[in-house]
Amino acid sequence: MCPLSTPDSALYATHGQLTARRNGFLFGTSDQTVNYVVNGSSDDWMYGEQQTRRRSSR
Q1: Furthest-apart CA pair in the chain: how many Å?
Q2: What is the pTM of this model?
Q3: Is residue 52 in some structural domain?
Q4: What's the structural domain count of the chain?
Q5: 54: exposed, middle or buried (C-beta count within 10 Å: 0-12, 13-18, 19+)?
Q6: Which of 33, 30, 25 is nearest to 45 (CA)?
Q7: I want to staple 9 with a disulfide (CB 3.0 to 4.6 A). Which of 5, 21, 34, 38 is the partner?
Q8: Phi and psi for 25 in degrees, rounded to 5?
């Protein structure tokens, strides 16, 4: 799992707030919007491990 904030999190937060104003969706982390912490959030996908793993052939 990634750290709670990323080096460019302020930039993405600003973009998210502006987008949410226009489309009416909620803005925030999973904890702020649905009241629980999740694994596999957008930060995990964007800043996580960058290598492909081999799938099992079973």
Answers
A1: 47
A2: 0.57
A3: no
A4: 1
A5: exposed
A6: 30
A7: 5
A8: -80, 160
Q: Does some domain include residue 28?
A: yes
- Answer yes or no: are the C-beta atoms of 36 and 28 closer than 8 Å: no
Cα R_g (the chain), whole angstroms: 15
Is position 29 within any domain? yes
Task: Give the model confidence (pLDDT) of 3-51 as tens digits.
Answer: 567 788 889 889 999 999 999 999 988 888 889 888 777 777 777 766 6
Name the token pair of 18: 């502006």
Place of tokens 């990634």: 2
Rounded to an integer, what distance in angstroms lies between the CA atom of residue 57 and that of residue 7? 38
Mapping DSSP onto H, E and C, the string for 4-21 reads CCCCCHHHHHHHHHHHHH
Question: Domain limits at 20?
Answer: 10-47
